[in-house]
């Protein structure tokens, strides 16, 4: 009978790479204290020896699970297909950042009280928890609020309340970009549409940045904040209808999110108002679908790869908690604001 081929060990990798066994261990647990040169040497040695670390033994020794829990809050009435594409894009950024650090992700969709569960760290199911998703499920945020307040190993996307550990896009900078872009295109009577007075204050920050930049330019924004529905697309349609009914003078719109902007654009077209000739529109979120709208939508796009990296680094306590936890944004100029 042939003798079984001996599996390579971490000691073999260490000897071949010329490092200690503890260094090999730190490389495979994703430590940031290892230089890239050393990491590359260890990985090359591991590949040459066909070495695979014993994850279970490593986790037992370290007391870590190697798993990050990601909770996606959805509305009770929404199916998985109806979840905002922005959330899926952000989830992708988080999962890629976790994978780059050697972590697996456990993703849970939660929408109703019978599904709410956030004790992954406490129950040793995961080393940390990240909460993403809609701002329109108040019950869910009420459930997760005390966890996010007390647990340093939990973090969320957005700004649900001051005392929560969080990362968000640079909303004020995005609002300023929208104002400066519309002004540069010759628009002088801008309107902001979107619910700014809600629990999660990201829309408020976008509005404040927009108004701040307009004031510096000598302009002022009209605001349509009231909404009669939770459907963002319908919010945009309704806001435009009210603007027209009241006879308000406006030549441009900055919408709190892309779906509101898309609803506004459709309503303007149905009223025979030319976009961008008569009214220019800017959205926020950078949804991929906005490039295929008619006309293609100018939008503020957060860097979701950087957002994912920040969320992972912060929840693993490798970056300090503070006001600087803002993912950068960029303006993607398209035909919805391209005045001739």
From TrEMBL:
Residues 12-52 form the HTH cro/C1-type domain. SMART domains: HTH_LACI (SM00354). It comes from the Bacteria. Pfam families: LacI, Peripla_BP_3. GO terms for molecular function: DNA-binding transcription factor activity; transcription cis-regulatory region binding. Transmembrane segments: none annotated. The keyword DNA damage does not apply. InterPro entries: Cro/C1-type_HTH, HTH_LacI, LacI/GalR-like_sensor, Lambda_DNA-bd_dom_sf, Peripla_BP_I. The keyword ATP-binding does not apply. Residues 12-62 form the HTH lacI-type domain. Keywords: DNA-binding, Transcription, Transcription regulation. Coiled coil: none annotated. This is Transcriptional regulator.
């Amino acid at each position: 009978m042939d003798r079984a081929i001996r599996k390579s060990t971490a000691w073999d990798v260490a000897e071949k790479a010329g490092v200690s066994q503890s260094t090999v261990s730190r490389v495979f647990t994703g430590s940031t204290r290892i230089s890239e040169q050393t990491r590359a040497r260890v990985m090359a040695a591991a590949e040459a020896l066909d070495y695979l670390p014993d994850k279970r033994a490593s986790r037992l020794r370290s007391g870590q699970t190697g798993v990050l829990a990601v909770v996606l809050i959805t509305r009770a009435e929404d199916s998985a297909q109806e979840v905002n594409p922005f959330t899926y894009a952000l989830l992708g950024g988080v999962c890629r950042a976790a994978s780059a650090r050697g972590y697996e992700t456990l993703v849970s969709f939660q929408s109703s009280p019978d599904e709410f569960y956030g004790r992954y760290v406490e129950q040793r199911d995961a080393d940390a928890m990240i909460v993403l998703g809609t701002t329109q499920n108040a019950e869910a945020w009420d459930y997760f609020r005390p966890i996010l307040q007390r647990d340093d190993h939990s973090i969320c996307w957005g700004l649900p309340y001051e005392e929560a550990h969080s990362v968000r896009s640079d909303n004020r900078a995005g609002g300023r970009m929208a104002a400066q872009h519309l002004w540069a295109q010759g628009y002088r009577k801008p309107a902001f549409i979107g619910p700014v007075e809600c629990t999660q204050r990201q829309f408020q920050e976008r509005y404040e940045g927009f108004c701040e930049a307009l004031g510096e330019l000598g302009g002022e924004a009209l605001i349509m904040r009231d909404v009669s529905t939770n459907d963002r697309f319908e919010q945009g349609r309704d806001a435009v209808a009210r603007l027209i009914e009241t006879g308000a003078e406006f030549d441009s719109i900055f919408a709190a999110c892309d779906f509101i902007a898309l609803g506004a654009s459709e309503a303007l077209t149905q009223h025979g108002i030319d976009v961008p000739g008569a009214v220019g529109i800017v959205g926020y979120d950078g949804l991929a679908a906005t490039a295929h709208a008619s006309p293609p939508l100018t939008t503020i796009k957060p860097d979701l790869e950087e957002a994912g990296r920040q969320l992972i680094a912060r929840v693993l306590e490798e970056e300090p908690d503070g006001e600087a936890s803002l993912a950068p944004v960029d303006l993607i100029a398209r035909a919805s604001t391209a005045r001739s």
